[in-house]
Design goal:
The protein is α+β, with helices and mostly antiparallel strands and 103 residues long. It is 22% helix and 34% strand. The protein starts with a strand and ends in a 6-residue tail after the last strand.
Length: 103
C-alpha cells in the first residue's frame, strides 16, 4: 500500500505531528493520525475504496505492526532479524538470532 507522510503544525509553538495518509481516488483518504502516543485510524467506511474489506486491512496492519514491535524489542535485547516470512495461512514467522559475546 502506498502512503505519504503529512506533517501538521499543532499550535503556535510550531509543534508538529506526522500523519500517514493513504490516498483514495474518491478524495476520502485513509489516515493514521498520531495523538502523540499512538496512531489512530481515521476513515469514513462508507467511502472505503480498497480492494479488500476494512476488517482485512486492519488485520494486516495489526500483524505488520506486531512484527515490527517484536523486531524492535528484540533488537533492544541484542537480537537481529534473520528472516521475516508470511505463511500461506496468513500468519507471520520471525526468525531472530543473537550471538554471545565473550570479552
Amino acid at each position: 500500500i502506498e502512503y505519504k507522510e503529512q506533517e501538521k503544525t499543532i499550535n503556535s509553538e510550531n509543534l508538529s505531528k506526522t500523519n500517514l495518509v493513504i490516498s483514495q481516488s474518491n478524495g476520502y483518504d485513509i489516515e493514521f493520525v498520531s495523538n502523540g502516543q499512538v496512531y489512530e485510524l481515521v476513515v469514513d467506511v462508507s467511502f472505503w475504496e480498497q480492494p479488500y474489506p476494512i476488517e482485512s486491512f486492519i488485520d494486516k496492519v495489526s500483524k505488520q505492526y506486531a512484527g515490527e514491535v517484536i523486531i524492535g524489542e528484540s533488537h533492544k535485547m541484542g537480537f537481529q532479524p534473520v528472516k521475516y516470512q508470511q505463511n500461506v495461512d496468513g500468519s507471520n514467522t520471525v526468525v531472530l538470532e543473537r550471538w554471545n559475546q565473550k570479552f
